[in-house]
Specification:
The complex is a heterodimer of chains A (334) and B (533). Chain A is an all-alpha fold. In chain A, 76% of the residues lie in helices and 0% in strands. Chain A has 13 helices and no strands. In chain A, helix 5 packs across helix 9, helix 5 runs antiparallel to helix 11 and helix 11 runs antiparallel to helix 13. The termini of chain A are close together. By secondary structure, chain B is an alpha+beta fold. Chain B starts with a helix and ends with a strand. Chain B is built from 18 helices and 19 strands. In chain B, the strands form six sheets. In chain B, strands 11, 12, 13, 16 and 17 form a five-stranded antiparallel sheet that branches. Chain B has a four-stranded mixed sheet with strand order 1-10-9-8. A four-stranded antiparallel sheet of chain B has the order 4-5-7-6. In chain B, strand 8 and strand 9 form a beta hairpin. Helix content of chain B is 33%, strand content 20%. Classes of the chains: A mainly alpha (334), B alpha+beta (533). At the A-B interface, helix 2, helix 3, helix 5, helix 7 and helix 12 of A face helix 1, helix 4, strand 10, helix 8 and helix 14 of B.
Chain lengths: 334, 533
């Protein structure tokens, strides 16, 4: 097992280097630089442009800039935002809890609804419920997040007035950020009104961000169930005269969950991608919002550091899933 | 009591305090402004975006200010001032009753005085000032307004008198220092932070003299302010002010409709009819301090010939562009400055739309069959130009009628400006939003011979025009300046380096119960006079 873990961890190093190189190169291929992005209609005198480029090191050859950046990152320094002049790492830590909070809610929503639905569809293969679920999940998986989010706001917030439009909490509540997780902070503050506001603000973004994974989990669970239900050990269990609940949940679902766990783990990356759009629509102050802003302002340190940190998270989650998978299915380790 | 229990009790107590604050806040009147983005920091000396300047605006003040809703300059931290006969010395008499805000790191021991003024200008001017490099140290407006060359010295005469000495007389100086970049920071606060070893806090946890104090900023979410009871002027009517940050225009409007905010800037033009129809909302509008134009590169053939430039001016149907693209939210432009600005010359007669005459003029200039050219369109929407590509298409069709084949060109926004500034184009659209309401801010920035070498994309340098506007900038008598600027507009019209498209209208949707709101003539909002019915 240890050898397996070590081998997996070793593979992370080239992935990390690749991501650093890729994020650096892609950003520098996009026209414009941080200084030009700040220049307005007035333009900038060529001497001042040259002086500023020199000050930030943008007059260096690109490979030199990359090596400098890599050296800096290896020393744990992600640099300072060119826009806010605050440390990239500090900004990330400040914003990341909001993203985690939303992602956890979305994943829970998708698992708690998607897996049981997929299981039922698998058990009732060929029924109207099954066809209905397939139809709905294909639609759900292909839903453009931007459109879906705005539709939800228009219907539930503006039309019906049931949910707030955007943000993490009503602007009227003043909660000091303590853990960064609003659901925890409002609980510490023992402010019921603030907590109600926090949870109501979570509803729409959770649904919007959770829709695509929900559809995927449901379809995956369904097909895994179908596969497992045809296995010999299920027939054996039936022959032994076990109750259908025990067969379906303990024998079938547990085995069917192995590929589903992988899909859940892999969807974390997609979820962070979806979070970028969801956060933009719902003005959710997380890292998605932060990275989008940095693209517009050509804020290289934030963009590179943010991409790198997101990559590290996705890599770690995938590593974790691989470990978990090897626990669930010992054959993998060999 | 064990330590964890103690900790928990303390946290709960703190929580209860925060909770009670929350309730107290909820009961007080709160104005929520749906801001369109996050500020870079809270120092208007360093920021250049409207969003960031707007976030600092309730907090700071300068020596002079723009009277709300106008471009007239009035007193702020300076009660009055005198200009010497040679126009080189400005003596400011400072207000004695202005107080500084306070926060957890700083309790002011005295009010605002001359040291603060000297410090604030020295921070921007002097490389050796310990605060010069703090928060990046890029003082863009300071440089853009030519302060390094213009300002010779700022000296304290006594605690409440400051003398500014200029290198050359400069009439727009008073308007320039009413701009946000000339805001005043507290020297005492700066000293305290320097001693603490945290100078960067001066721009993150700001202390000012304005009607609102800074309370809290949660990045990308909210900025909170509370009324400053020590403010020398009329107290703000609303005790709590919150900026709720929402980048998407559709979401901002949804929040406004749901009464989650009461003021929401920058509506999408497509939403204007439905905002007008909503009885819970009001829609204010004001002619913008801006101009959208098509610039001819006067260094390149055939646009070095004024006849060609005039022919193009006559060939394009501006009224059709206004109707199709601005959809009523603008007026046809014939001069560089908007009609709301003093010295606007209404006697200048715009080129009439006349394709036949344009074709004739083109033939006289040696192009009876027209020519081929490029026509640049910005990739982004700007306040003065809602859709440059659509305008380019309409222009292209008009130009085809006189035999001019125009190819539409566009680049990424930063690249576009860079290439246009380098003069890569033949014809390019761009525009300008005024900073301070002084005509010099249009005439010099966009058309002086100095600008031809950097920012101006016509690259036009006309000595007669340049002499007129240079002279106008050195005299302080407004009537005399007006005459000179009127003449300059006539010279410019004859030479036609630009095709002026439009001055756009600025719209501001509000909840119907908001009173006392005025659209600022120079951008941003003043919240101190606003109330909720």
């Amino acid at each position: 097992m240890l050898r397996y873990v070590l081998r997996r961890v070793m593979l992370v190093v080239p992935t990390f280097l690749g991501v650093t190189l890729l994020s650096f190169t892609l950003i520098h291929l996009v026209p414009g630089d941080p200084i030009e992005a700040r220049v307005g209609e007035r333009g900038i005198a060529p001497e001042r442009l040259a002086a500023l480029r020199h000050e930030f090191g943008y007059d260096q050859p690109i490979w030199q800039q990359f090596l400098d950046y890599l050296w800096q990152v290896l020393h744990g320094d992600l640099g300072v935002s060119l826009v806010t002049h605050r440390g990239v790492w500090a900004e990330f830590l400040m914003l990341f809890p909001a993203t985690i909070e939303l992602a956890l809610c979305a994943i829970s929503f998708a698992v708690l609804i998607g897996v049981p639905l997929g299981m039922i569809a698998g058990l009732r293969r060929g029924t109207a419920f099954d066809f209905g679920l397939i139809g709905v999940s294909v639609t759900g998986a292909s839903m453009p997040i931007f459109w879906w989010g705005l539709m939800m706001i228009l219907i539930f917030s503006v039309g019906l007035g049931w949910t707030p439009v955007s943000g993490r909490i009503s602007d009227l509540f003043f909660i000091e950020p303590w853990s960064g997780f609003m659901t925890i902070d409002c609980w510490w503050a023992e402010d019921d009104g603030a907590c109600r506001s926090t949870w109501s603000h979570l509803i729409l973004p959770t649904i919007v961000l959770g829709t695509i994974p929900l559809a995927n989990f449901a379809r995956m669970t369904r097909s895994a169930m179908l596969e497992v239900l045809g296995e010999d050990y299920i027939r054996t269990a039936r022959a032994k005269g076990l109750g259908s609940l025990r067969i379906n949940v303990v024998h079938a679902l547990r085995n069917a969950l192995i590929p589903v766990v992988t899909v859940i783990g892999l969807s974390i990356g997609g979820l962070l991608g979806g979070a970028i759009l969801t956060e933009t629509i719902f003005a959710w102050p997380g890292i998605g919002h932060w990275i989008i802003e940095s693209i517009q302002g050509r804020d290289y340190p934030v963009l590179q550091g943010g991409t790198l940190l997101v990559a590290v998270i996705v890599i770690s989650v995938n590593l974790g899933v691989d470990m978990l998978y090897s626990v669930l299915n010992p054959r993998i380790r060999r | 009591m064990s330590i964890p229990t103690l900790k928990k009790t303390a946290l709960l107590a703190a929580g209860a305090l925060v909770a009670s604050l929350g309730v107290a806040q909820a009961q007080n009147k709160t104005l929520v402004y749906c801001s369109e983005g996050s500020p870079e920091n809270f120092n208007p000396m360093i920021n250049t975006t409207g969003t960031s300047l707007q976030a600092s605006r309730p907090i700071y003040q300068g020596l002079t200010t723009f009277v709300n809703g106008t471009t007239n300059v009035g007193p702020a931290l300076a009660e009055k001032w005198e200009v010497s006969a040679d126009g080189l010395t400005y003596t400011f008499h400072l207000r004695r009753n202005a107080k500084w805000h306070s926060n957890k790191n700083f309790k002011p021991t005295h009010g605002f005085n001359a040291d603060d003024v000297v410090f604030s200008f020295d921070r921007q001017a002097n490389d050796a000032n310990p605060y010069h490099k703090v928060t990046g140290g890029g003082y863009d407006y300071w440089n853009d307004m030519n302060m390094p060359k213009l300002l010779k010295s700022v000296t304290k005469v006594d605690d409440y008198t400051v003398k500014f000495t200029l290198n050359v007389p400069q009439a727009p100086f008073i308007a320039n220092i009413a701009m946000p970049f000339a805001s005043i920071q507290s020297k005492e606060y700066a000293d305290v932070l320097l001693k603490m070893g945290k100078p960067e806090l001066i721009d993150q946890d700001p202390i000012g003299t304005g009607p609102y104090e800074f309370v809290q900023y949660v990045k990308d979410a909210t900025i909170r302010y509370k009324r400053f009871d020590g403010y020398y002027g009329p107290k703000a009517k609303i005790p709590n002010l919150v900026y709720s940050i929402n980048k998407d225009a559709a979401v901002r409007l949804a929040k406004l409709r749901a009464n989650e905010c009461q003021i929401s800037p920058f509506p999408s033009p497509a939403d204007l009819p439905s905002i007008r129809a909503d009885k819970n909302l009001q829609l204010l509008s004001q002619p913008g301090l801006n101009v959208g134009y098509l610039a001819f590169n006067t260094l390149k053939k055939p646009f070095d010939d004024p006849r060609v430039r005039i022919a193009i001016n006559m060939a394009i149907d501006k009224k059709a562009i206004l109707a199709a693209v601005y959809q009523g939210a603008g007026q046809v432009a014939k001069n560089l400055i908007p009609p709301t600005m003093w010295s606007y010359n209404d006697k200048v007669e715009d080129f009439k739309y006349d394709p036949a005459a344009a074709k004739k003029l083109l033939a006289e200039a040696g192009f009876p069959d027209g020519f081929e050219t490029d026509l640049w369109a910005m990739p982004v929407q700007r306040p003065y130009n809602p859709d440059a590509k659509r305008i380019a298409e309409l222009m292209q069709a008009d130009l085809a009628k006189i035999g001019v084949k125009a190819k539409i060109v566009s680049y990424e926004w930063g690249e576009y400006r860079k290439r246009a500034q380098a003069g890569d184009h033949m014809m390019a659209q761009l525009g300008w939003s005024g900073d301070n309401g002084d005509p010099d801010n249009f005439f010099a920035v966009l058309a002086s011979c100095a600008a031809a070498k950097s920012g101006s994309i016509t690259k036009w340098c006309n000595k007669e025009y340049d002499d007129l506007i240079t002279k106008a900038a050195t005299i302080s008598n407004v009537a005399e300046r007006t005459k000179l600027y009127e003449q300059a507009q006539v010279v410019m019209h004859k030479d036609a380096p630009y095709l002026f498209i439009a001055h756009s209208v600025v719209f501001q949707p509000l909840r119907a119960n908001v009173t006392g709101y005025k659209i600022s003539a120079v951008g941003g909002n003043d919240f101190s006079e606003i109330d909720l019915k």
